[in-house]
Design goal:
membrane, 63% helix, protease, mainly alpha, DUF805
């Protein structure tokens, strides 16, 4: 839980680096909380037969949580990319790619954009799951302590 709270304390810090554990713990907790809140929203829905969104406490809590964690999610993702030796601008390219997939229309385009979306998701997940660049890079020292005198670990 300290790892999660540490990310929240650095909610708008886009500089520096973030270890895999820091990033994936934050993503996992956010996913579990989001899933729980959507289940709560479904449970509290007054009429499950009604199409379209229904506004209830669970839905409101879900959106408050989503908005509250949006900036920390972006920041820790940028720091994670830095740790793998990539610029945070990769995230902007990925978001633009996702928007293009969602905004495409038509059945055949929809299937193609869905496959592109899946491919983009896999590429981004693999990028974020890679090991840290050892030692110092242009975004700072390794959060693992590698490259600091006396703390370098053998490979």
């Amino acid at each position: 839980m300290n790892t999660y709270l540490n990310v929240l304390r650095q909610y708008a810090r886009f500089g520096g680096r973030a270890r895999r554990r820091e990033y994936w713990t934050f993503v996992l907790v956010n996913t579990l909380v989001g899933f729980g809140l959507t289940r709560l929203a479904g449970y509290l829905s007054p009429d499950l037969g009604v199409r379209g969104p229904s506004l209830n406490v669970g839905t409101v809590l879900y959106w408050v949580f989503t908005v509250a964690t949006a900036l920390p999610t972006l920041a820790v993702t940028v720091r994670r990319l830095h740790d793998t030796g990539r610029s945070g601008w990769w995230l902007l390219g990925y978001v633009a790619f996702l928007l293009a997939c969602f905004l495409s229309t038509g059945t055949s385009v929809g299937v193609f954009s869905g496959l592109l979306f899946l491919l983009g998701l896999i590429v981004m997940a693999v990028s974020l799951a890679q090991n840290s660049v050892p030692g110092r890079n242009r975004w700072g020292d390794s959060p693992k302590g590698e490259g600091v005198s006396g703390l370098s670990s053998p490979r």
